[in-house]
Amino acid sequence: MAFHHVAIATRDLPDTHRFYSEAMGFTLRKVQVAPTPHDGWAKHLFYDTGGNGMLAVWELHDDTIGTAFPTAISTGLGLPDWVNHIAFDASDLDALAAHTRRWQEHGIDVVELDHVWCRSIYAVDPNGILVEFCCSTAPLTEADAADAARLLADPAPELEPMPAMTVHKALVPAPPS
Predict the structure, then answer these.
(1) CA 111 to chain centre
(2) Any residues with CB less than 8 A from the CB of 41 and at least 6 apart, and which?
(3) Where are the alpha helices (DSSP H) in 31-105?
(4) Which sequence spans correspond to the domains of the chain?
């Protein structure tokens, strides 16, 4: 079953909208403005990510929540940013290269990792959330599924080597926040 949407919160809607519409290339499709359960209100924005789901962003105006809430889905919980993140599909390596270039042109340094069965690029959005474009480079097989079951049950599995990393520097300075 596909996701309909994943929702995140922002404290800076203009910067977040600029990132997701310009740097990510997503299209804003719907905004709902409605009351919250505690006498406040919120904007709920829905971005078409170019696949079978959307990314939603909350701008909250509710005194019971305040304005100092953490928005980062990993570091806000005391975890490194790479743990909880949002990954979007890149259809092929040319699309991944195009996303890399787009981010560089928006002043973003891009980290690329080759995971052998897929290749990914990473950036951090204005809310401290790690976002990823990922391209599958090899089909997952029945042997992969059997290996996954074996590794799941192994309390001390053998470690794979670290993925090969490339850093693509921004082509322009990062825009002011």
Answers:
(1) 13
(2) 33, 34, 35, 61, 62
(3) 93-105
(4) 1-69, 76-177
Task: Give me the amino acid identity at 163.
Answer: P
pLDDT of residue 177: 66
Residue range 51-66, pLDDT digits in tens: 889 999 999 999 999 8
Residues 6+ apart with CB under 8 A from 135: 89, 90, 91, 92, 93, 95, 96, 118, 119, 120
Span 1-69: which CATH code? 3.10.180.10
For 83-111, what is each residue's pLDDT tens digit? Answer: 999 999 999 999 999 999 999 999 999 99
Indicate the DSSP class of residue 93: H
Side chain identity at residue 16, one-letter code: T
Q: Do domains 1-69 and 76-177 have the same CATH topology?
A: yes
Q: What is the CATH number of domain 76-177?
A: 3.10.180
